[in-house]
Amino acid sequence: MSDQADMIWWKTGVIYQIYPRSFQDSDGDGVGDLRGIKRRLPYLRELDVEAIWLSPIFASPMADFGYDISDYTAIDPLFGTMSDFDALLEAAHPHGLKLLLDLVPNHTSDQHPWFVESRSSRDNAKRDWYLWRDPAPDGGPPNNWLSEFGGSAWHYDDTTGQYYYHAFLAQQPDLNWRHPQVRAAIYEMMRFWLRKGVDGFRVDVLWHLIKDSQFRDNPPNPDYQPGRPPHEQLQPLYSADQPEVQQVVAELRAVVDEFPDRLLIGEIYLPLERLVAYYGIDLSGAHLPFNFALLSAPWHARALAELIDRYEAVLPQGAWPNWVLGNHDRPRVASRVGAAQARVAAMLLLTLRGTPTIYYGDEIGLRQLPIAPDQVRDPFEKNVPGVGVGRDGCRTPMQWDASPFAGFSTVEPWLPLADDYAQDNVVNLSAADTSLLSLYRALIALRRRQPALQLGDYQPLAAQGDVLLFRRVGGGSSLLVALNLGAAPVAVLSEQFSLDGEILLSTFMDRAGERVGATLDLRGDEGVIIGPVPDPIV
Ligand code: NOJ
Ligand code: MG
Fold first, then answer.
1. Across residues 9-13, what is the average pLDDT?
2. pLDDT digit string (tens) for 76-111?
3. Tens of pLDDT along 124-150?
4. C-alpha distances in angstroms, 8 versus 111, 371, 419, 455, 472?
5. Is 76 an active-site residue?
6. Between β-strands 51-54 and 200-203, what pairing exists: parallel, antiparallel or unpaired?
7. Is it the case that residue 520 has pLDDT exceeding 50?
8. Residue 538 has pLDDT above 80, yes or no
9. Whose CA is nearest to atom 11 of ligand 1?
10. Which of 15, 50, 434, 451 would bridge 509 by S-S if both were Cys, CB 3.0 to 4.6 A apart?
11. Annotated catalytic, 232?
């Protein structure tokens, strides 16, 4: 258990991801915006999250909905103006709410003035800001690297007869992070936002920044499963996670550290053993390399227990853990695990050791919405149709109330709304004492009150079948968390450990105060948190 010095906001608090297009529209164009977010600050305050992270709000042609940036220091008019941004920041901070921005340093839009210059001629001063290569002898792409969004990662440019590299869309050319001027330009841009007072960044595809200097071919992936996205046919041995990226990560961290109390999060999809390298040598890297293990883990108690142990085991000394249950790229948790287990998942997320990140709408149980082919907006799904990679279904509008467009907008939103919004919305769920939203609020409140949940150690307990069992110990307290990942009732017996205590919270929200002794009966799909019995009041 750690001391006072560890009571840092990004360790003790909860992060909440907002996909700005889909949170709240304020100007009746069917797309969410900054004034809309500002209007909803009281909701976030009540939920009691510590920080919000906004997916990109910068000037962009929107080929990848903002992850293709044409001006890093301008707000896209779709989302509002710079004064709207300043007003949001000024309103959030007195609420005690931190604001994190999305930093997209790996690539720009092909409309960014840097790239427009770079592509204009081979001897342009910005030519080497991007990755240009000659065609292969047969005129084809310089190597076999594949774009994550389908097809070759190389785009032939007629003007100069060379190819440029793009890990994602052709409209998202990769910057050359070996170039000192590129680094300096991005660091200066970070300072622009940090000076304004933003509390940190979530860094897009951090593990992609440096590529092999020789551009060697990637080897085939022997584990490729037909039906999976085509880029998985190769192992990204040379196109990502290169040793030299660690220097860049340390530099990004150093920029953030020029300002007090700021946070650097990295988006990194790698096996846990590789992921933790992004904490950096002596923790000089990201404060939180996002841990996405729960996004793809099979929802079985034994598999999860093993995964949590593995993560805890590979964390470097002093590194602070974190857990993510959903984001704007992956299917909604309520659809992955089902509505009943979504409550158990919430309890898991908010009782594990480490900073939890909640994806907007997961707290009201938004499901993955099936999208008709003619309604697809996501470029990934358009390029690689039919294999289930579409991301529109997890980006549907927030459901605030039962009014015509769910209180999200006054017009048809940019993506369809789920037709359950008349029931499943913030107003209704707030009024229902045992709703998923009420459970999220109770879990966050309990976490705030219990130092053991915020900073305590994680101690796994032996369990069988569908039961996941662990203790959180610290701050003079010890809590037991028991989760039933199955639909059948189960009895947990205290043979090797004590169950003594009282139930602080059940996922069904109807057992608080119940004493537990030798046996703990869990209903199907139930999770409980057991705390010490309070001293009698004298
Ligand atoms: C990761 C982002 O989360 C995703 O939405 C985006 O499409 C790619 N990076 C490319 O920027
Ligand atoms: Mg709008």
1. 98
2. 999 999 999 999 999 999 989 999 999 999 999 999
3. 999 999 999 999 999 999 999 999 999
4. 39, 41, 41, 10, 19
5. no
6. unpaired
7. yes
8. no
9. 67
10. 434
11. no
Here the tokens at position 462 are: 């032996």
Q: Which of 309, 415, 419 is nearest to 21 (CA)?
A: 415
- Provide Rg for the chain, Cα atoms: 24
Q: Which ligand is nearest to the CA of 22?
A: 2
Residue 530 forms beta bridges with which residues?
Answer: 480, 503
Place of tokens 């040379």: 238
Residues contacting residue 120 through CB under 8 Å, at least 6 positions apart: 159
pLDDT value, residue 1: 47
Distance 148 CA to ligand 1 centre (A): 10
CA distances from 263 to 75, 80, 140, 173, 286 (A): 21, 25, 43, 27, 8
Q: How confident is the model at residue 494 (pLDDT cuts 50, 70, 90)?
A: confident
What is the rounded end-to-end Cα distance, in angstroms, of the chain?
A: 30
Higher pLDDT, 472 or 535: 472
**Which of 69, 110, 168, when mutated, tests ligand 1's pocket best, judged by the most ligand atoms within 8 Å of its CB?**
168
Alpha-carbon distance of 6 to 12, in angstroms, equals 8
Query: Is the dihedral angle over the CA atoms 142, 143, 145, 150 positive or is it negative?
Result: positive
